[in-house]
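For the sake of transparency, this paper describes our internal protein records without simplification. The record that follows is passed on verbatim for readers who wish to inspect the format:
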Amino acid sequence: MSDVNNKGILVVSFGTLHQETCAKTIGAIEDDLAKAFPERRFYSAWTSEFIIKKLKEKHGIHRDSVSEALMRMKEDGITDLLVQPTHLLDGFENKKLEDLLQENAGLFETVRFGRPVLDSQEDAQRLAEVIAGEIYSNNISDSKTALVLMGHGSANDPQANAVYMRLQECLTAMGLGEIVVGTVEGSPSLDDALALLDKNCAGINKAVITPLMIVAGNHAVKDMDGDQDDSWKNILRSKGFEVTTLIKGLGEYAGFRNMLIVHAVSAEELK
């Protein structure tokens, strides 16, 4: 077997039941990473056992778990493995993945692990530039309109949540106080984001809300754009904003996908 056939790349995502957004986000990320590493055989896996099970039950579609993908690669003769998660931050899911890779590192001669998207101050700055160039500039042409980004957040990991504050600081430093970041489960909250908007940009009466998440899945459809009173859309409307929702995950933006390629190129060997 040639050296090329001994090399593999595994792209790991949380997963989603929303097939349309899956193709546009996770699928696009996987395609770009496969093209960026043509010398490596391509594999993918999801970390959510619940989503994997429901996808099989509802649509008859099988997605490998990480453990299944690792065994598949071992059986295929992969010895040099590169793993790139699509996770936005180094929260619970990413730490669980790293632990699993450590436990199974003996299956391969070499395992390299790429960092999540927002792993450094430079990453926060780069994502701020992607947001400004590919989201804000293409959807907002009016100084009276805010861009509200809905992140997931981690209810039990303040250190992981700190990346959202770094991103907000980058956007504000760029003179984009009308772009604010909130999270569904962590900090900053939507109230924090709106308080910052009120402080920085008086007189804004319109808002575009969009997910700060890889896919536009359940959180985007329900928590952001749902008809219930506590959806972000309706909370903003209750505060007098004219609201538009942009149901588009970060994986749909080329600049964001390129960030994952950069992380995969610089992936370090597991110790």
The mean pLDDT is 93. The beta strands are 7-13, 41-46, 80-85, 110-113, 145-151, 179-183, 206-211, 242-245, 268-269.
